[in-house]
Amino acid sequence: MNDVFLAQEYIKELEAEVPSTLKCLERIPTDLFGWKPHEKSMELGYLTLLVAEIPLWIAVVARDQEIDFATFKHIEAKTTQEVVDHFHQNVAQAKQALQALTEGDMEKPFYLKANGQTLFTSNKHDTLGSTLNHWVHHRGQLTVYMRLNDIDVPSIYGPSADDKSFG
């Protein structure tokens, strides 16, 4: 399978996940950003930003050779709109980076690092696929946080108990 075709397939998958992800992000109130369901859990604001940010990871994987957690820049969103705007920017960057891939790029190595130490190495093709899965996983986690806070959960792959359009 050629790399340009694979990149187009990843773009289609990315685009398919954007609408339901956006519906989730738009519903997270800033006054709950500090909430977490358990002391070992991440805060709702951090999780929300993570879901908005993972498309940027896709862009970095496609464009570059590594992400180092020590140097990767995160925004400090103070409002839900800032998270949503960041998400839109990240999706645009991901699509642009995927569209720029050429033959041979998917087999190039990608490194996930922490303070320069390699935690994980794989080719870009496998890393992009697992990053998309990682994004969907965290969006699912976000919907659980939403449910626990009585925030309406949108329809994602089918009806939601809160989505009146399926009633």
Automatic annotation (TrEMBL):
Please name the InterPro entries in this protein's record: DinB, DinB/YfiT-like
Q: Where is the signal peptide?
A: none
UniProt entry keywords in alphabetical sequence: Metal-binding
Q: Does the keyword Endoplasmic reticulum apply?
A: no
Q: Which family does it belong to?
A: Belongs to the DinB family.
* The protein's name in its UniProt record: Damage-inducible protein DinB
Which organism does this record belong to?
Mucilaginibacter aquariorum
